[in-house]
Protein backbone atom coordinates (compact mmCIF):
# COMPACT_ATOMS: atom_id res chain seq x y z
CA UNK A 1 0.00 0.00 0.00
CA UNK A 2 1.48 3.37 -1.00
CA UNK A 3 1.13 6.57 1.02
CA UNK A 4 -1.84 7.76 -1.07
CA UNK A 5 -3.98 4.69 -0.45
CA UNK A 6 -6.02 4.84 2.75
CA UNK A 7 -7.02 1.74 4.64
CA UNK A 8 -10.79 2.16 5.12
CA UNK A 9 -10.71 0.24 8.41
CA UNK A 10 -8.11 2.62 9.86
CA UNK A 11 -10.06 5.63 8.63
CA UNK A 12 -13.23 4.27 10.24
CA UNK A 13 -11.39 3.73 13.54
CA UNK A 14 -10.28 7.39 13.53
CA UNK A 15 -13.78 8.56 12.62
CA UNK A 16 -15.58 6.54 15.30
CA UNK A 17 -13.03 7.42 18.00
CA UNK A 18 -11.39 4.03 18.45
CA UNK A 19 -8.09 5.70 17.66
CA UNK A 20 -6.84 8.99 19.00
CA UNK A 21 -9.43 9.79 21.67
CA UNK A 22 -7.73 8.22 24.64
CA UNK A 23 -5.97 10.23 27.33
CA UNK A 24 -2.63 8.67 26.39
CA UNK A 25 -2.82 10.49 23.04
CA UNK A 26 -3.77 13.87 24.48
CA UNK A 27 -1.16 16.48 25.35
CA UNK A 28 -1.12 20.23 25.55
CA UNK A 29 1.31 21.67 23.04
CA UNK A 30 4.03 23.90 24.48
CA UNK A 31 3.13 27.59 24.19
CA UNK A 32 6.05 28.21 21.84
CA UNK A 33 4.69 25.60 19.40
CA UNK A 34 1.19 26.98 19.72
CA UNK A 35 2.42 30.53 18.96
CA UNK A 36 4.50 29.23 16.06
CA UNK A 37 1.46 27.44 14.61
CA UNK A 38 -0.74 30.51 15.03
CA UNK A 39 1.89 32.64 13.32
CA UNK A 40 2.27 30.18 10.44
CA UNK A 41 -1.50 30.08 9.95
CA UNK A 42 -1.89 33.85 10.51
CA UNK A 43 -4.45 33.12 13.20
CA UNK A 44 -5.09 34.18 16.78
CA UNK A 45 -7.12 32.36 19.38
CA UNK A 46 -10.03 34.44 20.63
CA UNK A 47 -12.74 33.82 23.15
CA UNK A 48 -16.30 34.95 22.53
CA UNK A 49 -19.48 34.36 24.46
CA UNK A 50 -22.38 33.26 22.30
CA UNK A 51 -25.91 32.27 23.27
CA UNK A 52 -26.23 28.49 23.69
CA UNK A 53 -29.15 28.23 21.23
CA UNK A 54 -27.02 29.98 18.59
CA UNK A 55 -24.14 27.55 19.15
CA UNK A 56 -26.49 24.58 18.91
CA UNK A 57 -28.01 25.97 15.72
CA UNK A 58 -24.57 26.55 14.19
CA UNK A 59 -23.54 23.01 15.14
CA UNK A 60 -26.67 21.63 13.49
CA UNK A 61 -26.04 23.62 10.31
CA UNK A 62 -22.40 22.52 10.22
CA UNK A 63 -23.43 18.90 10.82
CA UNK A 64 -25.89 19.11 7.95
CA UNK A 65 -23.04 20.23 5.69
CA UNK A 66 -20.68 17.59 7.09
CA UNK A 67 -18.19 20.06 8.55
CA UNK A 68 -17.08 21.13 12.01
CA UNK A 69 -18.85 24.18 13.40
CA UNK A 70 -15.79 26.25 14.38
CA UNK A 71 -14.27 26.29 10.87
CA UNK A 72 -17.75 27.05 9.55
CA UNK A 73 -18.02 30.04 11.90
CA UNK A 74 -14.57 31.22 10.77
CA UNK A 75 -15.73 30.98 7.14
CA UNK A 76 -18.96 32.84 7.94
CA UNK A 77 -17.04 35.65 9.62
CA UNK A 78 -14.61 35.91 6.69
CA UNK A 79 -17.47 36.11 4.19
CA UNK A 80 -19.29 38.69 6.32
CA UNK A 81 -16.15 40.84 6.71
CA UNK A 82 -15.41 40.75 2.95
CA UNK A 83 -19.00 41.64 2.13
CA UNK A 84 -19.09 44.53 4.62
CA UNK A 85 -15.76 45.95 3.43
CA UNK A 86 -16.99 45.82 -0.19
CA UNK A 87 -20.26 47.49 0.79
CA UNK A 88 -18.40 50.23 2.72
CA UNK A 89 -16.02 50.81 -0.21
CA UNK A 90 -18.95 50.99 -2.65
CA UNK A 91 -20.79 53.47 -0.41
CA UNK A 92 -17.71 55.68 -0.04
CA UNK A 93 -17.10 55.53 -3.79
CA UNK A 94 -20.69 56.55 -4.52
CA UNK A 95 -20.46 59.42 -2.01
CA UNK A 96 -17.19 60.60 -3.56
CA UNK A 97 -18.63 60.48 -7.08
CA UNK A 98 -21.73 62.36 -5.95
CA UNK A 99 -19.61 65.02 -4.25
CA UNK A 100 -17.44 65.40 -7.35
CA UNK A 101 -20.48 65.63 -9.63
CA UNK A 102 -22.12 68.34 -7.52
CA UNK A 103 -18.94 70.34 -6.96
CA UNK A 104 -19.04 73.03 -9.64
CA UNK A 105 -16.43 75.13 -7.88
CA UNK A 106 -13.52 73.00 -9.08
CA UNK A 107 -12.85 73.22 -12.81
CA UNK A 108 -12.24 70.11 -14.86
CA UNK A 109 -8.65 69.05 -15.34
CA UNK A 110 -8.63 70.12 -18.99
CA UNK A 111 -9.64 73.70 -18.08
CA UNK A 112 -6.91 73.83 -15.43
CA UNK A 113 -4.30 72.65 -17.92
CA UNK A 114 -5.47 75.21 -20.50
CA UNK A 115 -5.33 78.05 -17.96
CA UNK A 116 -1.84 76.92 -16.90
CA UNK A 117 -0.69 77.03 -20.53
CA UNK A 118 -2.24 80.45 -21.03
CA UNK A 119 -0.56 81.85 -17.93
CA UNK A 120 2.77 80.21 -18.76
CA UNK A 121 2.74 81.38 -22.39
CA UNK A 122 1.39 84.69 -21.33
Topology:
Blueprint: H1 8-16, H2 31-41, H3 52-65, H4 69-102, H5 109-121
Helix pairs in contact: 3-4
Summarize this entry quickly:
66% of the residues lie in helices and 0% in strands. It has 122 residues and is mainly α.
Structural overview:
This protein is mainly α and 122 residues long. It has one domain (8-121). The protein contains 5 helices and no strands. The longest helix has 34 residues, at 69-102. The relative contact order is 0.03. The model has no long low-confidence stretch (mean pLDDT 83).
What are the main properties of this structure?
single chain, about 120 residues, 5 helices, about 0% strand
Main sheet specs:
none
Give the averaged pLDDT, no decimals.
83
Q: Helicity level, as a percent range?
A: 55-70%
Tell me, briefly, the overall form: elongated
Task: Give the quaternary arrangement of the chains.
Answer: single chain
Beta-strand content bin: under 5%
Low-confidence stretches: none
Number of strands: 0
Number of domains: 1
- H and E order: HHHHH
Counting H and I runs of at least 4 residues, what is the number of helices? 5
Using only CA atoms, what is the Rg? Answer: 29 Å
Ends apart, CA distance between termini: 87 Å
Structural class: mainly alpha
Amino acid sequence: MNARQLDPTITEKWENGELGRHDEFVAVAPESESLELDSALAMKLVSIRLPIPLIETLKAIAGHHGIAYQPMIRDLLMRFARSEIKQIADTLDAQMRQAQASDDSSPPVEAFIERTRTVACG
